[in-house]
Amino acid sequence: MSDYQHLLPAYRSHAALGDAERIAWIRADRWLETAQARAALARLEDLLSYPARDRMPCLLLYGDTGIGKTKIIRKFLRDHPACFDRGTGISSMPVVAMQMPAEPLERDVYGGLLTALGAPGPMTDSTYRLKEVCLSLLRSMGARMLIIDEIHALLVGSFRQQRIFLNVIRFLANDLRVPLICAGTEAARQALLTDPQLAERFEAFHLERWTDDFQVSQLLTSLGGILPLRRPSDLATTAVRRKVLALTDGMTSRIFRLMETVAVEAVRSGDECITIDSFDGDNLVLPLVSMTRHMEKGLRHRASR
Ligand SMILES: Nc1ncnc2c1ncn2[C@@H]1O[C@H](COP(=O)(O)OP(=O)(O)OP(=O)(O)O)[C@@H](O)[C@H]1O
Ligand SMILES: [Mg+2]
Question: May I ask which residue range the UniProt record assigns to the signal sequence (predicted)?
Fold first, then answer.
């Protein structure tokens, strides 16, 4: 048996597993550190170590849907987990992250935070009381950063509701003297810009789509080194890179989904490697947009034969 030299050492043993196990492995959730994700994490790290002062800096992490915002936040949370000190009996949670409530309502922010703190309680108390409980818990648990994901959901509210909500989160961050991080789409950026005071406070970090460059090669090469296929794949060529970008419009979620599909197909077909031809199959699982284009191209190709 070959020892799968094309794979990174830690991943070689996976290639020897059976088909079903390898397919499950390919489809499992994973984290890959891309250059952009690394830069975003470094920025978050920097803000976490920011000393408490009256006016704390805030950050908006924005980019298209599926670009990887939530993945970055989850990774940051894993890097800074909550911990329980048995000696003192005190739990601490340096980074508190919540998802934007379905509606921009003040009460729901406190509800979301209490759930994030592991202390969901009855939501029958007055808004004022909920806020007090929330602030006191955040302080006693040593929260040093607040993150609100999916902030674009703010836009379902009326203009007035949006302004009230933005003030609520701003005052929360002010009271606690911690940096506030919001993540969302371009629409979120527009919403924040409507409040000059907030726009002034927020620094923006744009997560961009992948383009035809060195970073895409790096991503594909990293995938080639971990996907449990038994033969070396042809992922470093310009043709493959261009094909992947054309089929996915450079969207992170689509790239991962596409690579997962061709890798699974490589296992099922017995080809055991990914080549430029892997991307021409009729059964590629692509998002609707790129799928339409892919089929049109296929039809044109067949008509011209
Ligand atoms: N660094 C990464 N490592 C591995 N997979 C990733 C990474 N970034 C993104 N993905 C893939 O892309 C998918 C979408 O990522 P994510 O949920 O973070 O996007 P998002 O920007 O939060 O999108 P939305 O605005 O719709 O919430 C993930 O489920 C995962 O499959
Ligand atoms: Mg998300």
Answer: none
Per-residue model confidence as pLDDT tens digits over 254-277: 999 999 999 999 999 999 999 999
In the predicted structure, residue 199 carries a pLDDT above the cut 80: yes
Ligand 1 proximity of 38 Cβ (cutoff 6 Å): no
For the chain, the DSSP string reads ----TTS-GGGGGGGGS-HHHHHHHHHS------HHHHHHHHHHHHHHTPPP-SS--EEEEE-STTSSHHHHHHHHHHHS--EEETTTTEEE-SEEEEEPPSS--HHHHHHHHHHHTT----TTS-HHHHHHHHHHHHHHTT--EEEEE-GGGGGGS-HHHHHHHHHHHHHHHHHHT--EEEEE-HHHHHHHHTSHHHHHHEEEEEPPPP-SSHHHHHHHHHHHHHS--SS----SSHHHHHHHHHHHTT-HHHHHHHHHHHHHHHHHHS--S--GGGGG-TT----HHHHHHHHHHHHHHHHT-
Range of the domain at 263: 9-27+210-303
* Residue 114 and residue 173 in one domain: yes
Mean confidence (pLDDT) of the chain: 89
Q: Could you tell me the pTM of the whole model?
A: 0.91
Same domain for 235 and 248: yes
2 is a domain residue: no
Q: Give the closest ligand to the alpha carbon of residue 251.
A: 1
The string of pLDDT tens digits covering residues 164-177 is: 999 898 889 889 99
Same domain, residue pair 75 and 62: yes
Ligand index nearest the alpha carbon of residue 74: 1
Q: Which atom of ligand 1 is nearest to the CA of 207?
A: 21
What's the CA-to-centroid distance between 71 and ligand 1, angstroms? Answer: 5
